[in-house]
Amino acid sequence: MSNPVNIALTVNGKQVEATVEPRLTLADFLRERLRLTGTHLGCEHGGCGACTSILDGASVRSCLMFAVQAHDARITTVEGLARDGQLTPLQQCFRKHHALQCGFCTPGILTTAHAFLLENPNPTRDEVVEAVSGNICRCTGYIPIVNAILDASTEQ
User: Quick one: DSSP state of residue 88?
Assistant: First the structure.
């Protein structure tokens, strides 16, 4: 048994302090300790992208990180994208283009796309396809997802 560790981080704009086991994943910390269940767990090997969150502006697989690694970091989950109850242009475009079906992959794709658009606000179709290539969606065929991201890039 290892010794618990104190961590402090900012999650969706709120300061969070907690004591965690060193082996607790960031995904489990977000879901179980903070009840931010938009962070989905799929493969738990980093391959599906369902657990993607944004750490200091970059998309990360939260199932591959320990919560202690996020000490002093700024984390944004899908719940933190909308501001004051207003959907972001990206979220609005996902709705407009029907870029989701079952919704399991949607939080990970939204956080991936959000971080991508911050880095590349005027992407090509090929760049969008590459950006979401690490997120598995078994329902949509990706065309509406890519179209939504491209549309959002014009509205940012």
Answer: P
- CA 76 to chain CA centroid, nearest Å: 7
Name the percent of the chain in helix, strand, coil, to the closest 5.
35, 20, 45
Name the pTM for this structure. 0.93
Instruction: List residues bridging with 11 in a β-sheet.
Output: 14, 75
> How many other C-beta atoms lie within 10 A of the C-beta of residue 18?
15
Helix axes 106-119, 143-155, angle to 10 degrees: 40
- Burial-class residue 95 by CB neighbours within 10 Å (0-12, 13-18, 19+): exposed
Q: Which domains does the chain have, with CATH numbers?
A: 5-79 (3.10.20.30), 89-155 (1.10.150.120)
Q: Which residues contact 143 (CB under 8 A, 6 or more apart)?
A: none
Closest among 70, 134, 83 to 105, alpha carbons compared: 134
For 36-82, the pLDDT digits (tens) are 999 999 998 989 999 999 999 999 999 999 999 999 999 999 999 99
What would the two tokens of residue 45 be? 């090997």
